Amino acid sequence: MAAGSPPAMENGDLRGAAAEYAQDGSVDLRGNPVLRSKRGGWTACSFIVVYELFERMAYYGIASNLIIYLTDKLHQGTVEASNNVTNWSGTVFLTPLLGAYVADAYLGRYWTFVVGSVIYFMGMVLLVLSVSLPALKPPPCHAAVCPKASALQLGVYFGGLYIVAFGNGGTKPNISTIGADQFDEFDPREKMHKLSFFNWWMFTIFLGILFSSTVLVYLQDNVSWSIGYGIPTLGLLVSIAVFLAGTKLYRHRVPQGSPFTSMGRVLAAALFKWNVPVPADAKELHELDLEVYTRKRKFRMDSTNSMRFLNKAAVKDNGGSPARWSPCTVTQVEETKQIIKLVPLLVTMFVPCTLIAQTNTLFVKQGATMNRHMGPRFQIPPASLGAFVTLTMLIAVVVYDRIFVRAVRRYTKNPRGITILKRMGIGMFLQVVTMGIASATESRRLAYARSHGLDKTGGELGLTIFVLLPQFVLMGLADAFLVVGKIEFFYDQAPESMKSLGTAMSLTAYGVGNILSSFLLSTVTRITRERGNAWVTNNLNASSLDYYYAFLTVLGGINYLAFLALSGLYRYKAESTETIDIVMGLEAEKAKLQAQPLG
C-alpha cells in the first residue's frame, strides 16, 4: 500500500464510505475498518444471543441446584453449603476483572472470550465426571448416617466448579460487550437499537435460567445428576460452535491498553505533582493532537474541573513539554475520573447483590422443608421456585421495554424513559420490600412448625411451598429493574476504551455481594450461637431465619438511602463526538478524492 493511502475496506472502495463506514472505530479481526452494511447489527447479535442462551443454561444448570447437591449428595451442613455456594458465585463474578484486563490490554475481547470458553467447557466436563463416576462421589446416607466426602471427591467437584469460574472470567465481561459493540453509537438508528439491546440481552438470559430452574433441576432431583449436568455441558459446546460460526459478521474493537496501567499512571503522577498548580486554561495541559486519536480510532476527551486534583497529572513542565515521569494526557486523566466516579455507586451494589444471593441458597432450603406435592406423584424441586423469579423478570422486561419506556419518554424526553439510576433505585426499593415480606413469611412458617411439633424433629411441613411465591416473584420484579439497569449503567458510563472494565465492574458487585453474604451468614450464625440461639442451623424449623431476613431488610434499607444520596450527586458523562466527526470528515474527503478523475 502506498504511503498515505486509505485503509483497506471490506469488499469495496471508498465511494460512499462516509455514509456506510462504522463510525465508532470498529474493525475486523485483521484490524481493517468495516462497513456497517457488512457487519454488526442484530444479524451479528443473533449468534451472540444464542450463545448466551445456552451458556446461561449451563451456568444456572449448576448454580440453581448447587446447594441441594452440596447438602444431599456431598452431605454438607446448611451454613457450610450456603457459604460454599456464595463463595463460588463470588469467585465467578470477580474473575471478570482479570478477563477485562486481558481483553483490554492484550488479546482483545474476541480472543479472550474464545480462550475463556475453552476453559469453561473443561470445567463443565470435570463436573459431569464428578457426579457420574461412583469413585468421585460419597455413598448415599444410610439410616441417618451420611458418610463425608473424601478429599479427592471434594477436590474434583470443587476443582470443576472453580475451573468454570476461571473460564467465566474470560467470557462474562466480554460477551455482552461484544454484543453491544455491534451497534454504532454514532448512527441514530443503531443507537436506538443499542438502547434496547440490554433489555433483550437479559430476556435471553432469563430464558436460559428458566430452562435450568425447571427442566434441568427436575432432571437432577428426579432422574439423574449425570443427565442434569450432561445436558448443559452439551449445550455449552453447541453455543461455542454457534458463536464461532458468526465470526465473519462481528465488529471488533482494537485493544487500547490496560486501563489499570493508565489509571495507575494518572494517580501516581497527580501525587508526585501535588504541589504543582493547575493552569487556568485547560489548553495548556498535555494532550495529543486530534489526528493521533483519529488515526488510532480512539476518542479524545476535553478537560473538566471535577476532581481537579487529578488534572495535575497532565501539567506540563516549564519547558512546555510533558515531564518525563508524567506522560499523562488529558484524555487519560478524564478516563480515570470517569471510573473513579463509578466506584461509590459500585459499592452501593454490594448489598443488593447479597440479597439476590439468598434466592439460590436460603430461599431454596426454605422450600425443601415444605409440602412440595402437586398431585399424588409429582414433587416440585425446591430450586424450581427460582423459575418464578425468571418468569417475572421476563414479563417485566418486555413490559418495561415495549410499554413503559414508550409511554414515559413522551413526557421525560429521555430515550430510555427514565434515567438508568432511577431504574436501579426502583429495583433496590423493591428488594427491601421483598426481604421484609420474606421475613414475615418465614415467621409464619416457623409458627406452623412449632404448632405441629416439627421444630424438634425437623420433618416436612404440611404448609405448601407456594407460600414462598411472593418473595420469589417480587425478587424477579426487582431484578428486572436493578440487574438490567446495573449492567447498562456501568457499560454506558465507562470510558469508550474501558467498556470491558465497565462490564466487569457490574459483575464485580455480584462477586463482592456473594462473598459478603458468606461473611454475614457466618458472622451472624457464630454470634447468635454463642448467645445460645443460632439464627440459622441445619434444622431450619428450629432456627430463627426470620430474624436473619429482618436483619438483611434493615441493611438493604440503609444501603438504599446511601444509593439515593449518591445517585443525586452523580452527573452522567457527556457524549463526545469530536473525534468521530474528524474521522467522518477525513473519510468524506478521501471519498471525494477517490471520485475525482485522474490527470
Automatic annotation (TrEMBL):
It comes from the Eukaryota. InterPro entries: MFS_trans_sf, NRT1/PTR, POT_fam. Its main location: membrane. GO terms for cellular component: membrane. It is a multi-pass membrane protein. It holds the Pfam family PTR2. The chain crosses the membrane at residues 110-129, 198-219, 225-246, 342-363, 383-403, 424-441, 461-484, 504-527, 547-570. One of its GO terms (molecular function) is tripeptide transmembrane transporter activity. Keywords: Membrane, Transmembrane, Transmembrane helix. It is found in: Membrane. Belongs to the major facilitator superfamily. Proton-dependent oligopeptide transporter (POT/PTR) (TC 2.A.17) family. This is Protein NRT1/ PTR FAMILY 5.2-like. It comes from Panicum miliaceum.
